Each structure stands twice: as C-alpha cells, then as structure tokens.
Amino acid sequence: ESLDKKRFRTYLRAFVILELVSCAAVIAISLIFLHGNLRLIIMGVSISMILSNLILFYQYLSQATSRFKEFALLKGGNALLILLSVLAFMAQKHFTGRDTGFMTLIAVLIMISVVILCCYLWIYRDITFGKSLPLAEVKPDFIDMIKAGIIMTLAYEASRLVLLIDRQFVSVLFDISVY
C-alpha cells in the first residue's frame, strides 16, 4: 500500500520498453544473419525471454510485497502447465510414434508464459495499469537501476561459474557411466 504506484508504473513501462527493444534487436539480427531452424529458435527464445523477464519481475514483486499465496499459486500453475504439456508430448510420441517438433515446443512454452503473465497482470492490475509519471522524470533512477542490475548480474554469474565449474569439468571430461 505504501508503493508509489505512479512511479512504479513508470519503472515498469521503462522496463517493458527496454525488453521490447532488446527483443526486437535480437529478432532483427536473427532475420538478417541467421537462416533456417537457427533463425526460428533464436526468435522463439527471444520472445520467450521477454515473457520470462516480465514474469520474473512480477515474481520478485510478489515476494517483495509478501504476496506469497499468488507467487506460489502461479509458480505451481506454471509447473503444472509444463508437466501437462510434457505428458501430452509423451502421449503423442507413444500413440503416433512422432516426435514433437522444436517449434511446437517453443510455441507451447511461449503460450504457457503468456498465460502466467496474464494472470500476474490481472492480479497486479491496480499497480500495473493507470496513470504514470513521464519517463524523463525517472530516467536517472532507471539508469542507476540498470547499472546496479548489470553489476549484480555479473556477480551472480561469476559466483555460479565458480560454484559449478567442477561439475562442468566432470561433465565435459567424463561420460555419464563414469560420472
């Protein structure tokens, strides 16, 4: 309740614009430089990433505002939808003998993400939609958040690399039976 909704909406709008520009750039690059299946995969992953980042944004919001019921419900719903999709793909393989194509997998994952994101948009509609501040007013704050976010992301990835490097060596140097 103490959240400055106008400021929050402006941050969210700036985040969505940043995500859309990034997604559009990746799609443009893939259209220009890539061909065939790789082009389709990169485009699908780019769309999936924007949805995942927005979902993650709302998950963090749920945790920060102690709305764990919504967080758990949607996290469980996402897992359930993925499980049902995998079971459907397995049933298709069992009954038809045909594998599911990669584009179908990507499309289903994108649809699941759209459903989950729509649920978050509905749950947080009062702080997502409405009047916001001009983007220029929050530009310095947003730039500071991006700078801090990049540093935190690099630190997180470096710690993951250090903590998982031994597993990477084992998986690269030994086959699964030895491992």
Based on the model shown, name its key terms.
mainly alpha, 85% helix
Structure report:
By secondary structure, the chain is mainly α. The chain is built from six helices and no strands. Helix 2 (about 35-65) runs parallel beside helix 4 (about 100-125). The chain starts with a helix and ends in a 6-residue tail after the last helix. The model has no long low-confidence stretch (mean pLDDT about 85).
Question: What's the topology here?
Answer:
Elements: H1 5-33, H2 36-64, H3 68-96, H4 102-123, H5 125-128, H6 135-173
Helix pairs in contact: 1-2, 2-4, 3-4
Overall shape: globular
Q: Distance between termini?
A: 52 Å
Content of β-strand? under 5%
Structural class designation: mainly alpha
**Percentage of residues in helical conformation:** over 70%
User: What quaternary form is this?
Assistant: single chain
Number of strands: 0
- Specify Rg, calculated over alpha carbons: 20 Å
Average the pLDDT over all residues and give the rounded result: 87
Low-confidence stretches: none
Topology as a string of helices (H) and strands (E): HHHHHH
Let me know the largest β-sheet.
Answer: none
Tally of contiguous helical segments? 6
